[in-house]
Design goal:
It is a single chain. The chain is α/β, with parallel strands linked by helices and about 260 residues long. It folds into two domains: about 170 residues, P-loop containing nucleotide triphosphate hydrolases (Rossmann fold); about 80 residues, Rossmann fold, CATH 3.40.50.300. The protein contains ten helices and eleven strands. The chain has a six-stranded mixed beta sheet, sandwiched between helices. Strands 1, 2, 3, 5 and 6 form a five-stranded antiparallel beta sheet that branches. Strand 8, helix 7 and strand 9 form a beta-alpha-beta unit. Helix 7 packs parallel to helix 8. It is globular and about 60 Å long. The model has no long low-confidence stretch (mean pLDDT about 90). It binds adenosine-5'-triphosphate. The site of adenosine-5'-triphosphate (ATP) has 11 residues, from strand 2 and helix 1.
């Protein structure tokens, strides 16, 4: 097995609050790994450290054997990491197709001068980019909406479009922040199959944050459980479901709620 992502004791402090403490994730190529935990456990903060939004207060992050600690998000994307957000971030006024084209643009190698002069290399890349975007939309079941405004899509399809945008940057590792949020049971079930399909088809490794336990238990090879920033359990779905500390962390939350 090839190790793709490794975090060595990453910690994030906001003033006096330690949002994540000493997190040690190890994700192998091809795995689907979930990060779960009650609200405020530190899951999004962990994503933000891995993707370069925050520089960890302590610790190191290695991705594809390179130290990426403290690199800016766009450079981390170039190394092969892409993410979606808890709150969908699309260019709402642009078409579905343009949303994917813009994401793909990051990968075009033609220079600015070549692009304004419409030189051959730019034209070739643009054509390839359109083909690739069409392929992604086709593959994600969005072709029929390609000329629609992104904001006109139903919620579940907007989430798919976010994933299409992430895939347009050719990631090795895809981070999904609550992909099933706001979905009904049928959409949630479809999403579970869909995530496995894209993992296989695009040879992805996936790290996801998710509150829907049916999704987490249905697709994860391994699960990390955070509570108040601390990793309280790591294991396969079965061991996590039976872990006393995990049960208590979740029961504690429902009692408080
Ligand atoms: N930029 C920030 N500044 C200060 N505190 C923050 C910041 N970001 C997160 N926190 C705090 O860090 C803790 C962890 O938050 P985080 O959003 O990572 O949790 P989470 O597990 O993703 O929660 P949820 O499931 O509700 O999204 C919380 O107490 C939160 O208030």
């Amino acid at each position: 097995m090839t190790l793709l992502l490794k975090t060595d004791g990453i910690t994030m402090k906001f003033g006096g609050l330690t949002a994540v403490k000493d997190l040690n994730l190890e994700i192998n190529q091809g795995e689907i790994v979930a990060l779960i935990g009650p609200n405020g456990a530190g899951k999004t903060t962990a994503f933000n450290m891995i993707t370069g939004v925050y520089k960890p207060t302590e610790g190191k992050i290695h991705f594809s054997k390179k130290d990426i600690t403290g690199l800016k998000p766009h450079l981390i994307t170039k190394h092969g990491m892409a993410r979606t957000f808890q709150n969908i971030r699309l260019f709402k006024e642009l078409s579905v197709m343009d949303n994917v084209l813009i994401a793909n643009h990051l990968h075009l190698k033609a220079s600015y001068l070549e692009s304004i002069l419409h030189l051959p290399r730019y034209r070739q890349q643009k054509n390839a980019s359109v083909k690739k975007s069409e392929f992604l939309l086709e593959r994600l079941g969005l072709s029929q909406f390609k000329d629609e405004k992104a904001s006109s899509l139903p919620y579940g399809l907007q989430r798919r479009l976010e994933i299409a945008r992430a895939l347009a940057t050719d990631p090795k590792l895809l981070l999904l922040d609550e992909p099933a949020a706001g979905m009904n049971p049928k959409e949630t079930d479809d999403l579970t199959h869909f995530i496995k399909e894209i993992r296989d088809e695009f040879q992805l490794t996936i790290l996801l944050i998710e509150h829907h336990m049916s999704v987490v238990m249905g697709i994860s090879d391994r699960i990390y459980v955070l509570d108040h920033g601390i990793t309280i359990a790591v294991g396969n779905p079965q061991s996590i479901q039976n872990d006393q500390k995990v049960i208590e962390a979740y029961l504690g939350v429902s009692e408080d709620a």
